TrEMBL record, chain A:
The keyword Transcription regulation does not apply. GO terms for biological process: transmembrane transport. Pfam families: BPD_transp_1. It is a multi-pass membrane protein. The chain crosses the membrane at residues 26-43, 49-71, 83-100, 142-162, 174-194, 200-221, 242-267, 298-319. Residues 136-316 form the ABC transmembrane type-1 domain. This is ABC transporter permease. The keyword Iron does not apply. It comes from Pleomorphomonas carboxyditropha.
Automatic annotation (TrEMBL), chain B:
Residues 16-246 form the ABC transporter domain. It comes from the Bacteria. Belongs to the ABC transporter superfamily. This is ABC transporter. PANTHER family: ALIPHATIC SULFONATES IMPORT ATP-BINDING PROTEIN SSUB, TAURINE IMPORT ATP-BINDING PROTEIN-RELATED. Gene3D superfamilies: P-loop containing nucleotide triphosphate hydrolases. Transmembrane segments: none annotated. Keywords: ATP-binding, Cell membrane, Membrane, Nucleotide-binding, Translocase, Transport. Pfam families: ABC_tran. InterPro entries: AAA+_ATPase (IPR003593), ABC_transporter-like_ATP-bd (IPR003439), ABC_transporter-like_CS (IPR017871), ABC_transporter_ATP-bind (IPR050166), P-loop_NTPase (IPR027417). One of its GO terms (molecular function) is ATP binding.
Length: 332, 261
């Protein structure tokens, strides 16, 4: 423990566990979480939202856990250090819950229906979870089909554009022309050409992520150091080897930039496409609930989408770090 | 003694004939002469050093010999056959190690065998080549984790594992510190003596040429012409304080237009 106490002083984020072994930040966080529980349970809602008891129970549990951690963290070793790192965030979340709860449900300063207290969102999950799960399933299916077909085609086209001068001559001007057009601008045409709105939506999602992947893959492949090709050719490599074992790995860094861009674009397009003509899906759910001014439902869905999207971004980071182990690691 | 001597396909040394080769580049529309009527023959197993000032066209000549480019005039023959395209029988070790940064040391060395589909039969050759350049312990390291001298040794192993009959070396020791250079030169000499390939070594270091080569060809400033040839018959290992060595060194520097001290 002594090494931890020593490093605490010079770290940017203080993770101190003082020598008399109370984790101060945990204590402060516990106070705010318990205060949130007390306010939620003790004060009446201006207008009833439901699930106030449940939210109070959750925050109270969190507060008690934090209190326990504040007293025992110094005995938890590496796990304790990891928790301690998040101390300032745990405080911030407690404060945020308290202010949010107080300004919405308890005082109505931020009025219904435009704003919702945290237990308003909780109420949505409690009452509508089955439909939300169904929507998540539909959205992930549409996104998965679109994203994976889009990046496969985009990557293949990108390699061809970067490798073959002939392909580049015809392909690059077209790509440069349609690349900057937001995929959603094609909605009228695609809904005409595809048999169902589902097929049209898959196409739009694929287009939105395929284009950045194609452009960046092409840039990556065309920027590969010629000397690598010379070395490989003297070693007996044929064109296939040059493309697959030299050009592609050398361009992988660019490809991943394209994949990250494509991931964000595809999510934006997914929601818009679902709003227009889907039966289920998170975008559809948002459009449907907005029409009834059920903004708590909308916020609850936005939270789900944020978690889904950042989860997928996280997965992509893991994939990148696996494939690019040979590189010096940067900050992100 | 060497692993190379006891392999399935020990290098059959190949001859190289460079016949009246001239070459130029076009830079921004103007003709830029690089090689001027170069003729040079290497018999199988010979060790020839090409010596010339920086920028005279030495690397260009090696690229032509490797088959990476075609000469504007003249022909290059390997064992009597015209050189048209790169071929793993004749390998070029570049001025920069140019290791593939995404491949481990082992997989860098394996590249040639992998590209020719020989990996299954000759996988054992990779470990032999790595121990030849004393890098067994770094087989799983990535190039960014290597020092300059280690990277150059990997590049050497990557060439040797293919049992080339002709090895073209473009200032392979040029960028190393003097101690590393000395030990690599000695190692390379040992490899040449045991494996018996033909070697054409480009260098701008007179002493290096004198320590290693059986014949030294001195090139002029750009466009490169053959200025003179020196045959060195002294036994290995050679010593810098040997009177013949000192005399040759002075003569060669004189050819290059440098007054020796
Ligand atoms: N691909 C190229 N295009 C145009 N000029 C080149 C090219 N490669 C080499 N040169 C020029 O040819 C000359 C000889 O280059 P090089 O053979 O690399 O010299 P050296 O290896 O003897 O230092 C240099 O002046 C260089 O600028
Ligand atoms: Mg050179």
């Amino acid at each position: 423990m002594s090494d931890l106490a020593q490093t605490a002083g010079d770290g940017v984020v203080s993770t101190s566990v003082p020598s008399f072994s109370i984790w101060h930040q945990g204590l402060v966080a516990a106070v705010f979480w318990l205060l949130t529980a007390a306010v939620t349970w003790g004060l009446p809602d201006v207008l009833p939202w439901g699930s106030a008891g449940l939210f109070a129970a959750i925050t109270a549990t969190g507060g008690v856990l934090l209190l326990a951690l504040a007293l025992t963290l110094h005995r938890l070793g590496a796990f304790g250090r990891r928790i301690a790192f998040w101390g300032p965030w745990l405080i911030a979340v407690g404060v945020w819950f308290l202010v949010w709860e107080y300004t919405t449900a308890k005082t109505g300063w931020l009025p219904k229906p435009f704003f919702s207290p945290p237990h308003g969102l909780l109420q949505v999950y409690v009452t509508d979870w089955s439909r939300l799960l169904l929507c998540i399933g539909y959205s992930l299916r549409l996104w998965g089909l679109g994203f994976f077909s889009g990046i496969t085609v985009g990557f293949t086209i990108g390699v061809a554009l970067g490798w073959s001068a002939r392909f580049n001559y015809w392909g690059m001007p077209i790509l440069k022309l349609i690349g900057p057009v937001p995929a959603t601008a094609w909605i009228p045409a695609t809904f005409y050409f595809f048999p169902t709105t589902f097929h049209a939506s898959v196409f739009l999602v694929a287009l939105s992520c395929g284009i950045p992947v194609a452009i960046l893959t092409a840039a990556g492949v065309s920027q590969v150091n010629r000397a690598y090709y010379d070395v490989a050719r003297t070693l007996g490599a044929n064109d296939r080897f040059l493309v697959l074992k030299v050009a592609v790995p050398a361009a992988l860094n660019h490809v991943f930039v394209g994949l990250f861009m494509g991931l964000y674009y595809s999510f934006a397009v997914l929601v818009v496409a679902e709003m227009l003509g889907a039966k289920y899906g998170l975008g559809w759910y948002i459009a449907f609930q907005s029409a009834y001014s059920a903004y708590a439902n909308v916020y609850a869905t936005i939270v789900i989408m944020a978690i889904l999207c950042s989860g997928l971004v996280k997965l992509l980071f893991v994939a990148r770090d696996r494939l690019l182990v040979w590189q010096e690691r940067g900050l992100i | 003694m060497s692993a190379l001597a006891q392999t399935d396909g020990p290098a059959r040394a190949l001859s190289l004939d460079i016949r009246s080769v001239s070459h130029h580049y076009d830079i921004a529309g103007t003709r830029f002469d690089v090689l001027d009527d170069i003729s040079l023959s290497l018999t199988p197993g010979e060790f020839v050093a090409l010596l010339g000032p920086s920028g005279c066209g030495k690397s260009t000549l090696l690229r032509l010999a490797a088959g990476l480019e075609h000469p504007r005039q003249g022909t290059l023959l390997e064992d009597g056959n015209q050189i048209e395209a790169p071929d793993p029988s004749r390998l070029l070790v570049f001025q920069d190690p140019t290791l593939f940064p995404w491949r481990t040391v082992r997989r860098n060395v394996a590249t040639g065998l992998e590209a020719r589909g020989l990996l299954p039969q000759r996988a054992h050759r990779i470990d032999e080549a790595l121990s030849l350049v004393r890098l067994e312990d770094f087989a799983d390291a990535y190039p960014r984790q290597l020092s300059g001298g280690m990277a150059q040794r990997v590049a050497l192993a990557r060439a040797l594992v293919n049992d080339p009959g002709l090895l073209l070396l473009d200032e392979p020791f040029g960028k190393l510190d003097s101690l590393t250079r000395l030990s690599l030169q000695t190692e390379f000499l040992r490899l040449w003596q045991t494996a018996g390939f033909t070697a054409l070594l480009v260098t701008h270091d007179v002493e290096e040429a004198l320590l290693l080569a059986g014949r030294i060809v001195v090139l002029s400033d750009r466009p490169a012409r053959v200025l003179a040839e020196f045959r060195i018959t002294a036994d290995y290992p050679r010593h810098r304080d040997d009177p013949d060595f000192v005399r040759l060194r002075r003569d060669i520097l004189h050819e290059l237009g440098v007054q020796s001290v």
